[in-house]
Protein 1
Amino acid sequence: MAATPAHPALDPALAAAAPGGVLVVDFGAQYSQLIARRIRECRVFSAVVPHDAAPEEILALRPAGLVLSGGPASVYAPGAPSLDRRLLELDIPVLGICYGQQAMALALGGEVARTGAGEYGKTPLTVRSRDGMFGQLPAEVCWMSHRDAVSRPPDGFTVTAETTSSPVAAMENPAQRMYGVQFHPEVVHTPFGTDLLKWFLFDACDCAPTWTATHVIEEQVERIRAQVGDTARVICGLSGGVDSAVAALIVHRAIGDRLTCVFVDHGLLRMNEGEQVEAAFGRHFGVPLVHVRAQDHFAAALAGITEPEEKRKTIGREFIRIFEREAEKLKDARFLVQGTLYSDVIESGSRDAAKIKSHHNVGGLPEDMAVELIEPLRQLFKDEVRVVGEELGLPENMVWRQPFPGPGLAIRIIGEVTLERLDILRKADFVLQEEIRRAGLYRELWQSFAVLPAVKSVGVQGDERTYAYPIVIRAVTSDDAMTADWARLPYDLLERISNRIINEVDGVNRVALDLTSKPPGTIEWE
Ligand code: XMP
């Protein structure tokens, strides 16, 4: 059996992005990702690394600074994540936040008091020195969330701020370029927080604010050229979504027509999506595109299936089958592009786990295909991908598209998926999207769509009795799809959607609204 490595391996994609950036050493705080986000918003690259990553591996990434994140536990709790002292000896500026400050204080010979009582929420702050991080910042209120607190700073540190419960709310050692704060500069409730982070980035670490969409594109183009070489060919599956589209465009910029995109249209897409992909990629960008029109194939495969998981499995299986067939025609393609995002990478944590996940994302390509992955979005958050997409000239309707599930409209049709029912749902969904866009709400909503249940009800239209399907309006707000709330759409908008759907879509005589948050509901109906 292979020995377990002492330290988790870091994502290899960091090697290109991290030099000159700031790494967030994660002690398990819910805010670690947020710290990285805030730093990136200041145009400095940032990524989260585990607290037990090997110091020499971190040093090899040549970061300009380190932030030690907060953590959930008391530094004295059994099993509390410890700070490897060698991280403080790399001659790189370090900012400890909350637990990070406490761990730093302990590692350098200071003291942390188990106060028992905590300090939570907005807290008045008294600045004792403005020679360093506070400068002229309006630092009067900060946001706290802790029990333990540093009670005595290590030698060489000056206390520069305090609160009633935290005698060391901030400490600084400019000679060693080490700093600590007990409060959270990354949350909006610390009004001067971003300015304090900027001070650390630009004054303490001497970073340059160069992390922009253009920079990302240039860096990835260079990286892809080096990875692929001068002759090899590359394949990319397009879904119609923003991630695969942006990934493909970056690769196309790097290697031109040696990239072939395969777009399997399973007929479960929203109105006009197939044409939009064709127009953007085939015609506008001139990317070699294989557009597989497989609507009838999928409709036949889905005939008679009503069980949601069986639908998903059937669609997944047929999708891979068709993609494989097209890939085989491009036998000499040795590389496969994937729109893996940073959020996909961090879930898995280690190099090995990341590989399993990304392989899974491919949709189970055959082992003997022996492709190497190209993942140009591996260091980006979704909103950063959109900015890169805009920079590359991707049309607005693709850049800002709401998330859409792989199995498409099939999991929004309860019961059997038929061409007729797909047509009803697609038309109703189109009306809904059009009205949501007109009302200026499309980008505000996480998702908005129509659902077609498997029941019919009685109605009356023009003196005629009708017996037809209802359409359910589903619109949710969310940050990450893990939880969601039903959107409070204005009544007049709901009225317009309802009237138009019933008037314009044959086979529908009623419109209902889904008032379920997640949990207990899921966003999709199947
Ligand atoms: P639920 O319905 O679980 O959805 O609340 C959470 C998010 O995931 C999307 N979703 C899917 N995406 N394949 C996908 O690629 C799927 O089978 C699938 N099911 C749900 C959904 O649209 C929402 O954004």
Protein 2
Amino acid sequence: MCGIIGIVAKIGNVAPDLVKGLKYLEYRGYDSAGVATVEDGVIHVKKDKGMVDDIEKRMGLSSLPGSIGVAHTRWATHGAPDQVNAHPHTDCENKIAVVHNGIINNFNDIKQRLIKAGHIFKSLTDTEVVPHLIEENMKSGLDFKSAVFEAVKELDGSFALGIVSVYEPDTLICVKKESPLILGVGKDAMYCASDVSSLVPFTKKVVVLDDGELAVLTPTSYEIYRLPDFSRKDKTPIKIDLKVEDAFKSGYPHYMLKEIYEQPTALSYTIRLQEHYLNLMADLLDRSKEIYIVAAGTSYHAGLIGSYLLSKMARLVAIPVIASEFITSYGDTVSVESTILAISQSGETYDVLKAIEYAKSRAATILGITNVLASTLTRVSRVYIHQQSGPEIGVAATKTFTGQLAVLYQLALIAGKRRGKLSQRELDDLKEAIHDIPRVVEETLKKTDPLMKKLAEKYCKSKFFMFLGRGLSYPVALEGRLKLLEISYIPALAYPAGESKHGPISLIEEGVPVIFIAPRDETRKYVLSNIEEMKARGATIITLGEEGDKELMELSDDFIGLPPVNPYLAPIPYVVPLQLFAYHTAVLLGRDPDRPRNLAKSVTVL
Ligand code: M6R
């Protein structure tokens, strides 16, 4: 769960561009960062604990000389997040430098063998075995390229590697196995990086590497080889359509706020999905004996809503499962008749990919919903849908959540139509409601943001929050709670409102804030009773409901009114004030909402 980038150029120093690229990759981890370049037979390395901008100010990463180099931003797995463990790592002689994203499972065996052979290790990382192994292979007479090939054969695990050396100062070698890696083809320069957005400032021509591929880059060429026999493979670059400004903050103080505000626009893209792919997916869902929706974190919350929608609109049973629990809980029931609908904004979440790998080995059909083109999920899915929410940099998922929901609504609608479970009237109403959703979200943002800021000021010192909802509003409660706790670090609980009396109610005492999600739907009348139960025990009641809902207003200490919306669609606007509440609370408490502690945007480890 790190970000890597490498550049080999015909002329000029590459360090400034490496640093620029690193900034786009910080969402993948920001424990430490570093750059290595090659010039005049010397590897130059600068690296430290902390974030790219700070290290740049302190050490001047971009002042390193040389027209070839690699760089890294780290989310620590092996070894503390300090300077010694920061990448790039080098061999004993400082002739080879390596950056790595992923985990090398058998590093300890290799390390012990190399230590016996006289190698001296500086860090506690798994990565450091790679430069030493290449060094060892070169000692036995192999040239740089062959030494890398032989080293890679020995590595077990998931990795994306970028490797440079003084031996071939115009050759950058990169390898992909399970961790993402994309090549960029520029004019008189070649690139490799963990994602497409970090390449956008330099080139729009990319080559997506598949698992088990290794690329040898020079300023004007790229050669791709396949493991384990290193047979040559030809791949033509594809053109990507991303703008540089898409990945910047556009004047907002934080990416998270910018991304919350981008939701109306992002949704307007997502609701224009090509029907062809939705039809294909709906068809495959229809033909399955059982359907599992597999996802993690926020994407799992979207999956819960998707399961509800498929049941209500298409009468299809789809079991939502947290990805890391899937193999243990349902593995034995997966067969050629099963379909896995995997939801992952990054398309790289390890738990999701492992569940898919397992399901594939049992011949199940894989469908994917993701926000990252060329991510692993897009490559392992029989059919995938790119939700087109635009790059999301803030660690907390916001616009990608509502985007996932917009995909799921369209999918459930098409499945319902194909299966004849929706009347023409219902179909027309739902279609209209989906098309109106960007406007509803726009209005929700305008109406609720100032109020959510005030409520954050009022409640930010609370020690605990409870979020309650029924039906479709239960996953919204879960998502509101996840947003708040992950970026403000305030403990919180979310429950189906009807279940709260079976235990969580014992946590209620005078003044505990309980947030109810109560749109005008079939569950509202029961929620009113749950509000009474909490009120009777002294809770402070905060409710989200339809504007003008007098009954709710009378029961509430604070009421947030939202524009009227079709009850099926309510989760999209109703999550928005909760995102804003989490954001303002975190900022008031002095937290960085874009980079919450211990978290990374893309969780590519077990
Ligand atoms: O990229 P994915 O959608 O697969 O990510 C899943 C979770 O890691 C992610 O939703 C995480 O929970 C976020 N921090 C939520 O804001």
Protein 3
Amino acid sequence: MEKILISACLLGEPVRYDGVSKPVAHPMIHEWQRQGRLVPFCPETAGGLPIPRPPAEICGGGGTDVLADAARVVTRGADVTAPFLMGARAALALAGEKGICFALLKERSPSCGSNRIYDGHFTGTLIPGMGVTTALLRRHGISVFSENEIDDLAKRIK
Ligand code: SF4
């Protein structure tokens, strides 16, 4: 049975930068949880960042650019690229350890976003792009879906 790496905040863990969760209500989540498929993980806390923490955005590109050292993850006052990379690598290691090929990650996050992220200017502006963890997972062949694509993920997994 395929396991699914899932953003911990989507399962109700209060690990977001603002200290809350973003639980997603979808019947498949409850079904997958019952089946023991879900592996919750938060890359940012795994990278050593506290709860709560200042909001961060990718400045100068997307997650792929951060991996290429061509963009940085920043808060309004600090460069937090290193913990974001550490968290992404920890997510990849966990996926490898558990043989995970699919991930369900929180859209718009600078770590977990898969289709859209904020533009790096803290103005609430979204741009096409993905977060650092998503970029690393996809680079290694893991299929990443957002909480808006649960039906698509359900069609893909065994
Ligand atoms: Fe949720 Fe991912 Fe942000 Fe952690 S890094 S709080 S799992 S969106």
